[in-house]
Specification:
Length: 248
């Protein structure tokens, strides 16, 4: 993996680079970093899953970014489609996290209004700490009761999840950096709430077609300018990190 911008460098260690990057948490909430992969024509999945889009370079950066997050957030649909389980960082990554004052492993969090989640899946049964489940007051009571046996259920919002309230709750837990792994609809709501501080985007060297979602899905436009912090290349993939230019 080589760096093209801001200055050429070869090779690049994504673990060291992402651990050294500056991510100042805004007041009252964590720094929120999106991590997504897309084809050159904008698809974020093939047959409903993103895994086949990214090559080894994307997977390595995916693990590196997970390694710096205190909490990893995903929408319920993404957790179901990608068959999520808890992260399994290497011994070296766990040691580096402890040295930085972080927990040995990141905590998982899922955003779901319907709570259509399988409480017997590895996402819950293999978690080192009960995952956070953010939902709304309108969620089915029986699903709330079932998930409270295996997770910490947080009601944030009435008819839909209030992401600003979620961010404040994460901040109250001491979360300095939350890594969001999609999908596009959750990203769209974060954009509308002006809660995107960082976008890590892998551009995979392929075209897909079809009707896959974009990285950010929103019925309304919410233009936000980002600054390019770095651009890497590996095996034809471009791996970019963008940050909000007004970050403190």
């Amino acid at each position: 993996m080589r760096q093209l911008l801001p200055e050429p460098a070869d090779p690049i260690d994504p673990y060291e680079a992402h651990a050294a990057a500056r991510r100042p948490a805004p007041a009252g909430r964590p720094w929120i970093a999106l991590n997504m992969v897309t084809s050159t024509d904008g698809a974020i999945s093939i047959e409903g899953r993103s895994g086949s889009l990214g090559g080894e370079a994307d997977h390595e950066v995916f693990r590196a970014i997970r390694g710096i997050g205190d909490v990893i957030v995903a929408a319920g649909g993404t957790v179901r489609a990608e068959a999520y389980g808890p992260p399994k960082p290497s011994e070296a990554v766990r040691a580096a996290r402890l040295a930085r004052g972080q927990a040995e492993r990141p905590r998982m969090a899922v955003v779901s209004g319907s709570l259509d989640l399988d409480e017997t899946s590895p996402y819950f049964t293999e978690a080192w700490e009960p995952p956070l489940v953010y939902t709304a007051a309108s969620a089915p009571a029986d699903r709330v009761a079932a998930l409270r046996r295996v997770a910490e259920v947080v009601v944030a919002g009435v008819q839909s999840v209030d992401l600003a309230a979620m961010a404040r709750h994460l901040g109250s837990l001491g979360t300095a950096c939350a890594v969001v792994e999609g999908g596009g609809i959750l990203n769209g709501h974060l954009l509308g709430a002006d809660l995107i501080d960082e976008l890590n985007l892998t551009l995979a060297p392929m075209v897909v077609g079809g009707d896959s979602h974009r990285v950010v899905v929103s019925t309304l436009e919410h233009p936000r300018h980002l600054s390019l912090a770095h651009l890497w290349e590996a095996d034809g993939s471009l791996l970019a990190r963008y940050v909000r230019p007004d970050a403190p």
